Amino acid sequence: MRHLLDTRTLSRDDAIALLDIAEDMAAVQDREVKKLPTLRGKTVVNLFFEDSTRTRISFEAAAKRLSADVINFSAKGSSVSKGESLKDTAQTLQAMGADGVVIRHPSSGAPQLLATSGWIDAGVVNAGDGTHEHPTQALLDAFTIRRRLHGTASRGRDLDGVRGVIVGDILHSRVARSNVWLLATLGAHVTLVAPPTLLPVSTAAWPAEITYDLDAALAQKPDVVMMLRVQAERMQGAFFPNSREYARTWGLDDARFAQVADTTMVMHPGPMNRGLEIAARVADSPQSTVREQVANGVSVRMAALYLLLSGERSEA
Question: Which residues participate in carbamoyl phosphate binding (predicted)?
């Protein structure tokens, strides 16, 4: 694997292989010494042009547990704030000998540009670009679902027959996009639920059903309900009347939670707006996988870095 830029072009076999390697990495997390020498001598740069807590720390922990040297780069306080271009930043990292670059950027397509421009000879991992994709988040979500369903026997399995409902701000969510493509590739049936104003203009090519009625979607007894954060920072106008109306119509409150099966997983990529898209009791319930997702994120990102940086990488 040369780069990990999206899930839309990720094959079923490659996705399952990555998830299986993540199982091996998860076993490392249970050891007293949570470290492997696999990437000793490699340098991983976390190149974050947007604020992040979970993703940045998760990638940093993953790289360090593989014994890589880690450089954390934040746009704030760097030459980027003085007007430095992505090209100049990339060439600086090339001069420093970066082997892998984990990039989060507000512009959709920035990781693709970095990977294909020739500015840097390093493996590139997309840690979220604009409203495009966030592939490692989708992979850790799939890993979490697979583990909840099959436990230690999950190796080699896909998600065939799993019914998933993704609810909320689909329009601005790169997590939703990556999950739609990956879950469908792995055999799951995906339903998107959102107000009409928070759906993309065209979803005809998406392998998912669309509905505006959350109660109807929950009545189908899905295996997975994934709630999305309302991304107010990306909204330039009024996409719904008010937060109370949104919570009443599209929030997973206590009453709706009581309707779902006891085996239904409740997921959220974080950070959560408790009381808006998800009730506090739901977020803290045994059916919630929020903490598992965070823990599994390290294993999945270890697997991604391992595939990109271990041994000699072939040319694209």
Answer: 54-55, 104, 134, 137, 270-271
C-alpha count within 13 angstroms, C-beta hemisphere, residue 50: 19
Binding residues: 54-55, 82, 104, 134, 137, 174, 229, 270-271
Q: What is the pTM of this model?
A: 0.93
Query: Annotated binding site for carbamoyl phosphate, which residues?
Result: 54-55, 104, 134, 137, 270-271
Residues 184 and 158 sit within 8 Å (Cβ to Cβ): no
Structural domain boundaries, residue 249: 135-289
| Number of domains the chain contains | 2
| Torsion angle (degrees, nearest 10) of CA 263, 268, 269, 271 | -150
Binding residues for L-aspartate: 82, 174, 229
145 lies in the same domain as 282: yes
Coil/strand/helix, residue 276: coil
Q: Is residue 44 within 8 Å of residue 102, measured between CB atoms? A: yes
User: CATH no. for residue 300?
Assistant: 3.40.50.1370
Assess whether 144 and 98 both reside in one domain.
Answer: no
Residue for token pair 């590739």 = 185
Predicted confidence pLDDT, tens digits, the chain (316 residues): 899 999 999 999 999 999 999 999 999 988 888 899 999 999 999 999 998 889 999 999 999 999 999 999 887 756 666 668 999 999 999 999 999 999 999 999 999 999 999 999 999 999 999 999 999 999 999 999 999 999 988 999 999 999 999 999 999 999 999 999 999 999 999 999 999 999 998 888 999 999 999 999 999 999 999 999 987 665 555 667 678 888 999 999 999 999 999 999 999 998 999 999 999 999 999 999 999 999 999 999 999 999 999 865 444 3
